[in-house]
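debug: dumping io for the single-chain case to check the tokenizer round-trip. Nothing else runs in this session.
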Amino acid sequence: MKGWITGKFGSFVRQYRGTSMNSLEKTSLTDAPQWSQRHRDWVLLFASMFSLLAGAAVAPALPAMAAYFSHVPNVGTLTKLTLSTTALFIAVGAGPAGWLIDRIGRKPVLAAGALITGIAGTSGAALDSLYLILVSRALLGLGVACVVTSATTLIGDVIEPARQASFFGRQTAAMKFGGILFLLLGGALTTLSWRAVFLIDLLAFAILPGVLRGFPEATRRAVQPRARLSLPWRNARVLAPVFATFACQLFFYMIPTQVPFHLATTVKAAPMAISVAIALNLVSAALVATQIHRMIQWLGARQVYALSLLTMALGFGLIGLGDSYGVFVCGLLVAGMGTGTIFPCAAAGIVSVVGEAQRGRVTGLLVMMAFAGQFISPLVLAPLVQSIGIGQSFLAAAAALLACAVIVPLWLSAANE
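debug: decoded output
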């Protein structure tokens, strides 16, 4: 009896108060308490949805916000910056967040990111200065960077290797469906007040209990606290997926920024019809993303990249050549099939290439380039649209995607030789 009690007490202490140095060497993030295993997947998926929280939720409130701050010079530009500023600071913050994840651990960065997201995001409901709201959206971007980078890193840590591709597909689906959900919720709250939309960021606090209780920290650095953590910058199995993700996001962002104008001018589509068309693109991407593990198993990663980029090119070609609402919808559905598979394939690939000690920074690089593509897209493609028009710009993007469909698989092939 004494031995049994001593064993149980020792197990309790190790679980809730830490372990000895020898135990730390054996500890893994996969050693989560049994009671948390059914919940941690949902915590990670919910945290991943925050990548769409910043932009999708606030977008419906922009006209009302611009009207309230009509006395502010350049109010139109400044209100639109409330979206792009967040994307910029997610890209800026993802790299440092990845470094912190590898240095101090996943859980502290994820918890701090959730706190920053909740506090900075909801502050917009009380601030009465457009400039201060912009500052709060920048801080929100840093918080979201910590949350999404930590969550993606944790997937590589706590999910068994055989399930990782499938789970990254579910993560992408959660992001897409989250975008639709937050867009609808933001529109509903905007009918009450443009300030009410910022209260959606209170959802960030909901993940804190799951983060604090469901993820034991693997303190690898306790074994080698001063080890120099080199990063495989020249590894094509890291760089090629990151490049594919950047290209995907660069061109994907043409859909929410250019398709509404293209549909309105070409087929005189009503606002609701435009919203349905873009929502179908997100649904298509989400559904295909859930099958990424089967695609990788059947085709292999190189072929998945080639097929995804070719599918995006086909969809963009249909959008560029379309002359009816039905053709545009078909193009958006096809393009969604391509965009939905690239990020989960890239994430699954890079977490399997690098060790746990490097995983945070490599994941930070992936998240950074994804959001950099979103931020750069309007800056790079707006002059092209002004020069040759929206339709021709989609055709040019289709040609660039065809080139990427050749470059990425060849790049990966060279790495395997």
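debug: round-trip ok. Confidence is low (pLDDT under 50) at residues 8-35, 218-229.
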